[in-house]
Amino acid sequence: MIGRLIINADLVVKTGLHIGGGSSSVEIGGIDNSVIKSHKGEPYIPGSSLKGKLRSLTELAHNKMSKNEKGENLPCDCGECFVCKIYGISASEKNKSLDRFPTRIIVRDAFLKKNIAEDMRKKEGDFKDLELSYTESKWENSIDRLTSKANPRLFERVPEGAIFDLEIVYTIYNERDIDNIKRLMEGFQFLEDDYLGGNGTRGYGKVKLENIKFFTKTINDYTSKQFGDIKASVNEIDDIWFGKLKEQMIDAK
């Protein structure tokens, strides 16, 4: 291992976000589809949801999907492409013959920033009109095309303006892993132009990454140090930035 790149950012909710919590988390009368919450009752973004979305968007953009016998799209599991190197492969019977390698990326669960959670709880600032403790509700209606029967449902959403603390750890084993960081940054850009969570085609789940900070930990000293400048957005990350990162990590070998 050469070292690790640690990425911290603010994940800002631009339109209501719904990541379902399942029937076990339904606590509010009248809500048909609640959002996932921590033990403190605060909504959060599971790392698995964010990682899965980044992977699927990258696979679609680069035509890296595999298919099953029914022709349905499945995550790539070739074990050789940059998608598999970054995000890993499943532990299936088919993949037992492949040389095993560690997944490069760790996506932490993202929790609300403390000041945002406090404003939501107290219904202050931008959240003074929030109807629930940390969330809002929105009616959605589907129509049966055969019977014309309406099926109204009440969805719980994390409101616009919520900000989550995002942390991603990317492990670098060789120079190719450094080059693949560009693919990870691509995934962030794809996400900003797509959506996170459910009901995206109905306007839910637009998010943006802001105040992105990069830290490196080399294998030589494993002492955290900030790398480069704080970036306002993923669009500010250019080839010069990648060149400096590559030089630093190679020098640490």
TrEMBL record:
Transmembrane segments: none annotated. It comes from Clostridium thailandense. It comes from the Bacteria. GO terms for molecular function: endonuclease activity; hydrolase activity; RNA binding. The keyword Cytoplasm does not apply. One of its GO terms (biological process) is defense response to virus. The keyword Transferase does not apply. Keywords: Antiviral defense, Endonuclease, Hydrolase, Nuclease, RNA-binding. Belongs to the CRISPR-associated Csm3 family. Residues 11-208 form the CRISPR type III-associated protein domain. This is CRISPR system Cms endoribonuclease Csm3.
